[in-house]
Each structure stands twice: as structure tokens, then as C-alpha cells.
Amino acid sequence: MAVRLVSERERDPVGASFRLGAIRGIPVFLHWSLAIIFLLLTWSIASGFSPEVFPEISPGAQWLIGATTAALYIASILAHEFGHAIVAQRLGVQVRRITLLVFGGVAELASESETARAELRIAAAGPAVSFALALAFLVGSLLATAADQPLLQAPLTYLAIANLLLGVFNLIPGYPLDGGRILRAIVWQRSGSKERADERAAQSGQVIGFIFFSIAVFLVLQGQLLSGLWLLAIGWFIQNNSGLIGAQSGMNALLRGVTTSQAMDDHVQMVPGRQMLRQIVDERVLGMGERFFVVTDEGTPRGILSLTDIVRTPRERWDWVAASQAMVPWSRVVAVHPAMPLTEALQLMTEREVSQVPVVHEGRPVGVLSREMIINNLRLRAELKSGVDRATQQRQRAPTSR
Ligand SMILES: [Zn+2]
């Protein structure tokens, strides 16, 4: 259904999902709520075979056909998500995982598309797969009709319609639905501004989410509780996720032109490689509250030692394990340049799943950057901006109030 950008080191994106396996290196997760959908679909399909029309079919066969059709529908949702994922992979965007949920699937991407065109292709791939499947099931259903096989024809027709609806539903232009992503890509392409596109995407999600809420309230008032709650959940999902992209675009606007050197801490804490962890913990971590060190060998950086690296070594070995043995070697360290835009540094840290990085200039560590520093910097800028906005408003209001 949706393609989602993973913005934080996430444990379990929605909670309570289990890993089914991996296809083409992409892990597939199933959320428990999918079981409800499976049962509901099975029941609705099985009960569709009325004894008057299908006198020859036993209740057992009804349920078997129902369950098979429901499973094929869920496989269709998975195929839709793989449409997004495979195109993303081809365009060089890493796919973290695919999760199937109560109202569809989510393909989580590790980074943003580089271009509007790439974004458009990734977003359109899912609905394209759904429409192709709808067509394939339609052909199957026509063949079954020609061969006079009503027991095959009924589920195939059902799957053709279900895939058609899945494709159409996802084209609703409300971010993060595929339609909203397509809209974002088009605005991005036309205006050349990603921020403008993000703004539009966020707005589209708010509007569509609101429409879903309104219909949900109407349905609940009509006594259709289940459908109402269903739409409510979808509306909530859309509003929530489009709110995230709105926040993201606000953040990018605040950090425009800000470089890493403006947010970093230029006190680099160094430890000699031969120093034992016990001494580092006692004197530096507990003694001075430091938690991130550049390990040096006669002034040359050899690696990075963070609190995580220290804790990974069993406590009773701290007396004889040296910093150089517990560190992440310099060749594997993710480092940033002081002139790197802060948003890019943050994206790099997110992609590589690290919370602090050394800032390196001409091979020499000149500072340390952490997520916390970026957030603090962002908060300061947001406060300053809201202060300036208020002052401007007051200045503008003052003459007219007289
Ligand atoms: Zn989709």
C-alpha cells in the first residue's frame, strides 16, 4: 500500500509482527492483525457460495475455497509491495523490509529517492502490479467461464475485483498512499523543489485523512460500526504518516544551509589505544561524563570507542582489554566532513544506524556530531524562528490596531 521511509533506528515498526522469511534479500514480516483479515475474507468468500447456486459444494469445500482465495489475496498485497521494493532496489534505494498489516502492506525504504522520476517509478510500481494481477485473474475467470467451471470462476472473479480495488484505492492522492507519493513526485518534478512537494504531500494526506474520518463517522452513525472503525484506522494511518513528512519538510527548511561544523562539538575526546577499558570507564566515563572517544596511536586516529563498544565487552574483562581491542577500527568508522550539510549528515547517520560520528577534516578528527546535537540545534532554530515570527506579527499588527 504505502512506501515508508525509515527515519529512525526502528525495532519493530508496528509491534507484534513476525518474520515470515525473505524474498530477494528483503525480509517479509506479518502483523498479527492480518489474521483477522484472513478470517474475515475466508468467511465472506465461503459464505458467498449459497447452497441454491452451488448445491454440489459441501461446507468443508466452501471454507477451503474461501481460505485459498483469502491467501491468494494476501499474496497479491505482498506482490504489490514487491512491485515497489524491486523497482526501488533497481534504482539503488535499499529496502529494509516489507510488513503486511491489517489494511495492506508497507515497504520500508532506507533512504529517499534521488530524483522525482525515481520517486514516481517506485510509487507507481505497486498499483501497476495490482492492475496486472487484476487483469490476469480476469483472464483466468473468463477462461473458467468458457470451460464452465463456476467453482473456479467465482474466486477468480473475486480476486480480479479485489486487485482492481487495491490498485484504485492506493491511487487516492493522499500521502502516504501511492497516489500521494505520485502527486509528490509530480510537484517535485514540476517545481524542482522537494520541500514544496513535501508540503503538498503533507496537505494531501491531511485532506484525505479528514475525508476518511468524515465517512467513518457517517458510517458509525449509520450503525455500520465495523466499516466505520476500518476507515477510521486508515484515516488515522494516512494523517499520521503525512504529518511526519510535514515535520520532515519543516526540519529541512530550518536546517537549510546549516553545515555540520555549526552543530558539532569541537572537543574531541581522545584515548590512547593501549589504555585499559577499566581506566577509561573510571576516569573518563564516570569521572568526566564522556561517552565517545577517538582512539589514537601517537596522535594518529585508529578507531572509535563508544559506550556501546565498552558495554559490549564483559565487565570482568575491562581490566585487561585495551581501547584498541574494543574499538571500531578507523577503516570502518562512518565519518562526516565539517562542511557537509547537516541534513545530509543526519541522513547518513540514519542510513548507517549510528547515533554519533566523528567529524574529520584532512584525516584529522576535528569534532563529534551526535543525533542529540542535531536535535538541540534544530530546537534552538525552531525557537528562534517562532520568536522572530511572533515579533514580525506584532509589528505588522501594531499600526492597524490604532
Ligand atoms: Zn503501494
From TrEMBL:
The cofactors named for this UniProt entry are: Zn(2+)
Name of the protein: Zinc metalloprotease
Say which family it is in: Belongs to the peptidase M50B family.
Chief subcellular location equals membrane
Query: What membrane topology was assigned to this protein in its record?
Result: Multi-pass membrane protein
> Is Transferase included in the keywords of this UniProt record?
no
Q: Where along the chain is the active site annotated?
A: 81
A family per Pfam: CBS
One GO molecular function term of this record is: metal ion binding
Higher taxonomy: Bacteria, Pseudomonadati, Thermomicrobiota, Thermomicrobia, Thermomicrobiales
Q: Which GO terms describe its cellular component?
A: plasma membrane
